[in-house]
Each structure stands twice: as structure tokens, then as C-alpha cells.
Amino acid sequence: MTNGASYQETSDREPHGRAFLERSLALRRDINSRAVADEEREEARRAPEEHPDPQAEGEQHPVLKMILVGVVAAVIGTVITLIMDWFPEPAAGAANEIDTLYDVLLICSVPIFVLVMTVAIYSVVKFRARPGDTRDGAPIHGHTRLEIVWVTIPFIMVTALAVYGWVVLDDLEAKGKDELQVKVTGQQFTWSFEYPEEKAKSQELVLPVNRRVHFRINTNDVVHSFWVPEFRLKSDAVPGLTTEYRVTPDRPGRYQVVCAELCGIGHATMRQKVRVVPQDEFDAWVEKKAGGGGQAADGKQLFTSEGCGGCHAFKPAGTSATTGPPLDDLAKEAAKRKPGLSAEEYVKESIEDPRAFTVKGFGKNVMPTTFKDLGAEKIDALVGYLLKPGS
Length: 391
Description:
This protein is of the alpha+beta class. It has helices at about 1-45, 65-85, 95-125, 145-170, 280-290, 295-305, 330-335, 345-350, 375-385, and strands at about 180-185, 190-195, 200, 205-210, 215-220, 225, 235, 245, 255-260, 270-275, 315, 320.
């Protein structure tokens, strides 16, 4: 009886259990379907605005257009750079070779630079990612032949330019017959020139036309750079080293030596006169220079050759620089600037130990301290020139 009742009770509950299970499964499917739908709607809402892919629609990327724009820009850039006058009129045989080399370098480098930058800028503008587009870019595979080409062409160009430059340099440095030896010395802020074979010194560079010149360049203090723009060649003056170059001036005229290396506060004033003259005029000048002169003449030459005019105004020397105090009327100014010293003592101290006293309104530690190495005779000559009335 008991067993029969249990069986009957179980049989009665089975339909109810199956119905409950079916309802539970249906409810779960409904919940899942709703969740999926909500997720799809959210993804659709967050998805960036679709932009057509040119390749997917059959449109090719405008590579040809990019290259065409780059070539046109390169041609225009090259023409502009070749039209510009980069240097003054040449005055030496080496200048023409250097100008040609410079033009070749421009013709090779400007088109490549302009072409590369044009393609780069065009690509950045044309193919930039739109706001909100966080998709990865299309995968790009290497192109072996293209990579070989764009490595090989620059290699050949650079090698050819290096060989060409070496040939030109070797020709410029070749020794010539009957060379004029000139020793060039740079110091803040002037150049001085010595002609060892002619036993002459000068603060002005005088050269004979159409004669090979061999410059040997030194410095007494910091690094300078000896450059006559009309000659094109340039060489640094390095402490402890002697640099050199050769040139043949071929056009008579007046030029300037320029320091092309920032060397201090008076760098812009470090310029010296250059004269290229006929051989007979040069010989006469050398003879006069080798003859010497008196104290006042020596003092004036020292004032110019030691670069005093690069920082000081001094009417007798025709200088008007303002880096240092003016040197006119020093006999009167000495008593005002430093009482207790005579004018001679004041000027001599200012040359030998410029840190001992600085005139109000002018920078401290500007004047080089190397002038004490001139020696007593030259310093006395310079003092006499500065204090002599009407110097």
C-alpha cells in the first residue's frame, strides 16, 4: 500500500516537474537572447563611422599622384636653389671648382629631400585616421625589390659624391711652384700675418695675383676659422695645431678675412683687410714692410694687429667698437677711472692685467689676459701710441 501510494504520488509530480524545467529553459533562452541583442546594439553604438576602403572598392591608392607631386616640387626646389647666389664673385682658381661641386651636391640632395618630404606630408594628410577610428591599419608586407632599389640608389649617389669631392680636394691641395708662404695667426679678435721668406709682418693680408699661396694657420687662444669668402676655402685655427690650405688668387681687388667660428663677444668684429695686387706692387709693399718704423708706427701696427680695434673706439686708428671702453683722451680719463696711477701705469696695467679694474658700464672678464705675453717692448710701444697726442 505504501509503495503503491508513493509510486502514484511520483507519477503525479512528473508532469509538473517537466513543465517547470521547460519554463526555466525558455526563460533562460529569452534572457540570453535579450542580452545578446543589447550587446549588439551597444557595439553598434560604439562602432566608429565606417569609411570606405579605396582598395576594397577597387580604387587604387594614388601612388602615381604622390610621386608626380613630389617630382614637380623637387624640380621647383632645385631650380630655386640653383638660381640663388650663395657666394660672392670668385677671386681664386679654386672657387670655380668648389662652386661646381656645391651645385652638384644641391642637384643631388635637394630633389631627394623635397620628394621624400612631399610624399610624407601627402601621406599624412591623405591617409590619416579619422576621429574615432581605432581600427588597426591594413597589414603591409615587405617588397624586396623596392627595398633593394631604395638602398642601392642612395649608396651609389653618396659614393659617387664622395669620390668627386675627394678628387676636387686633392686637386686643391696640390703643391705648386714658387709658393708664397704666409703664416696666419688668430687671436681674440684679430688676424695677423707673417711672411717668413720676405721677413715681413702685417695686420693686412696682401697677396700677389696669380701666384700660389700656402697658408699655415695657428691660434694664440681659442678656436677661430680663417675664411675669405671670395676664395671659398676655409680652415679652422685650432689651439696646439697648425692647419693649412693652398689657393691661387686670380682677381685683383679688396676683400675681407672673416672669422667663421664663434670665438667670443667680439667675434663679429674679427675681420681683416685682404688686397690682391700685381707682383711688382706686392714686392714694393714687402720691401716697405720689412724696413720697419719708429715707436708710434709700431704702436699703431700693434693696435691693429692685436685686435684692439675690435673692442675699443679710438679715433686715430679709425675704430668705433663699443665692446670695451673708448680709448680717446686716455691721459685725462686715467685719473678719473683709477686715481693714484699715472696714465702710463693705468694703461700698462689694463693691458697686462685687465681683470684688475673694469670701467663702469662694461662687462667684466671680457678682455683676454694674453696680451701680457707681448713683452715689455711691444707693450711700451702700444702704451706710447695710445697716450701720444694726435696718434
